[in-house]
Amino acid sequence: MNMNHHSKERTLVVIKPDGVQRSLIGEIIKRYEQSGLKMIAIKMLLPTEEMIESHYSVDPDFKKKVGTKAIESYKEAGDKPPSDDPETVGEGVMNRLKNYMTCSPVVAMVWQGAHAVELVRKATGTTEPRTSDVGTIRGDYVLDSYSMADSDGRAIRNLIHASGNVEEAEKEIPLWFDKKEIIQYKLVQETILYDVNLDGLLE
Ligand code: AMP
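That is the input. Now the predicted structure with adenosine monophosphate docked in place:
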């Protein structure tokens, strides 16, 4: 199969400190694994603040986007945002994220397979666990909200980071993994998932 085939799409998943502390590593891996995706890299590490800054700066508009959303959520809750400038509020969220993401080890992984980015995000649920659907990892295992995180001045604890799109995934993966830590191999189940002719199964 060529390297541009759908089955080669990759995404970065990081089980955040709260996922590790809640003993959800196995459950989270199970959800992605049973969808048919293939894990091609995994490690536990303690990120540095510099790593977190680089990771969230992969999207040059991260601070603006996250700041805009945060301002909306302050207003929805009837609270005054710390500033009306999205970049300034976004800078605050970045600092809170650094604090959160470096408080304990995380588990970083690369998952590969057709629609990997989209399927991982579907299984993970939306950013705010309070409004994530039941059946998603965040909807089933955690309860945090924008309003609680903002009023307590901290990042939302939502167990997992999952790349937002294919382009971001391809920029994020090298920040977390050396090439040699990513293993190219076949899973036997890939025949039934992707093989066109299915002619090698009967004896
Ligand atoms: P990601 O890791 O890709 O989900 O990056 C965004 C992260 O920033 C979220 O998961 C939250 O942990 C955090 N975050 C985003 N918006 C807010 C907010 N308004 N207040 C607190 N934390 C936030």
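Residues 129 and 141 are 8 Å apart (CA to CA).
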